[in-house]
Design a protein that fits this description.
Strand content: 25-35%
Distance between the termini: 31 Å
Order of helices and strands: EEEHHHEEH
Oligomer: single chain
Mean pLDDT: 94
Largest sheet: 5 strands, antiparallel
Low-confidence stretches: none
Number of strands: 5
Radius of gyration: 14 Å
Number of helices: 4
Structural class: alpha+beta
Amino acid sequence: MSRDVYEYAVIRVVPKVERGELINAGVLLYCQPRDYLCARVELDAARLRALDPDADIDSVRRALDAYELACGTQAGPLARESLGGRFRWLTAPRSTIVQTGPVHAGLTADPDSELARLFTKLVRL
């Protein structure tokens, strides 16, 4: 079974950017050889409230959902971009509440399984 290079970034929520505290809320995975780009998100509202009792949970959820939508076939303004272009745009540094961490790489024979593994390891408690 052949393995291909993939890149991924953790999607995180930083409710008070100036404090630098964050929770992991998703994973974005791109595998060029397999023409694969997918994001999986899940917001733990209780953990977010522990960092910021006044956090706008609905707005954060909408921002997280935008990562999944940007990877799909109806990507809105990003629909014209290549999957690699979308990945680069989604992982560009931002100092907003929802942002991605650094990009990392690995090898996989199954991007879907790798995304599930990373999500369980990096997002779920």
